[in-house]
Amino acid sequence: MAVFGRVHMPSLGGATEWLNSEPLGPAELQGQVVLFNFWTLTCINWLRQEPYVRAWSQAYRDDGLVVIGVHTPEFSFEHEIDGVRQATKERAVDYPVAVDNSYELWSAFDNHYWPALYFVDTDGVIRDQRFGEGRYEESERVIQQLLGVDRELTPVEGLGAEAEADWDHLHTPETYLGYGRADRLPTSDRAAFNERRAYELPERLHSNHWALAGEWTIGRESVVLDEAGGSIAFRFHARDAHLVLSPGAREPIPFRVFLDGEAPGPSHGVDVEEDGDGLLRGGRMYQLVREHDRVRERTLEITFLEPGAEAYAFTFG
Which of 10, 92, 144, 191 pairs with 159 at a CA distance of 20 to 30 A? Predict the structure, then answer.
């Protein structure tokens, strides 16, 4: 267990709203072991971590553990409380969630990551922390040590979008599409920012590169489709391919996914049918591809049948 001196749990008064609970703070949590989990609803790393946090909450609740989720939004649409409520429902999050739209809890903990875990003892002292995925056995042992219990670790299996990544075959990094955080811009010699522009897919996409087709506006956070029929293509190497999407003011927006120019068939993701059809309804992460056999480099193309789609980031697993 890490040693942090006597750094106490900060005030939680900066939360803009609470879900599954009345407002909590150090006074209400006095004498409890508390696990804080910073998350944002579109984060693939949090989605793959969440089965463990959910399981720990249920397994150790009667032993005195209180889990508190802190939802701090990454993208602007994640400030919408209905989306956070929907995410807690879909992920069976039944523990308290502090909505941190003003980043006050993020700043109070001096946090910099999604997801992040902070382990607080019965004296209100932060005793350990974890950032990102992994180290689950160590994290559960910290919980047991703080609670004074010793038993077998909780069995956990992530399903669907929550399944552990295929790390051995994951060769494509997270890729932001808005120019504010983009590592690389779309494959085009005519890319422009904050203005509508017509794009065409190149004859060949290089590995880990993406491109646009149709009328799009490249903004700071996202690329926004201005005319029906626009597409995004990505050359990737991973078992899973996801895309953070929002319908903006229009909902729903039908879309179609192709893999190497064909319907994905058994390689479709949980948000896509075998024929490639999907529906953009609400801002969240959409799983477009899950390879069913050999993982190899492939070209993903998603075409939106109505304008207004906002695409933020590709993630892979």
Answer: 144
The reply to whether the predicted model has a pTM over 0.85 is: yes
The rounded distance, in Å, linking the Cα atoms of 240 and 315 is: 8
| Distance in angstroms (rounded) separating the CA atoms of residues 280 and 116 | 29
Question: How far from each other are the two terminal CA atoms of the chain, in whole angstroms?
Answer: 29
C-alpha dist (Å) from residue 205 to 170, 200, 291, 297: 18, 12, 20, 11
CATH number of the domain located at residue range(s) 17-162 in this protein: 3.40.30.10
Residue-wise pLDDT tens digits, 252-276? 999 999 999 999 999 999 999 999 9
Place of tokens 């590709």: 314
Q: Which two tokens stand for residue 38?
A: 């910073």
3-state secondary structure of 9: coil
Query: What residue ranges do the domains of the chain occupy?
Result: 17-162, 167-316
Q: Which of 224, 36, 56 is nearest to 140 (CA)?
A: 56
DSSP letters along 19-43, please? ESSS---TTTTTT-EEEEEEE-TT-
State pLDDT tens for residues 224-250.
999 999 999 999 999 999 999 999 988
Query: Maximum Cα–Cα distance for the chain, whole Å?
Result: 63
- Please report where in the chains the tokens 């529906």 appear, as a residue: 279
> What CA–CA distance (Å, rounded) separates 103 from 105?
6
Topology annotation, domain 167-316: Jelly Rolls (2.60.120)
Tokens of 149: 């219990």
Q: Which amino acid is at 68?
A: I
Alpha-carbon gap, residue 32 to 27, rounded angstroms: 10
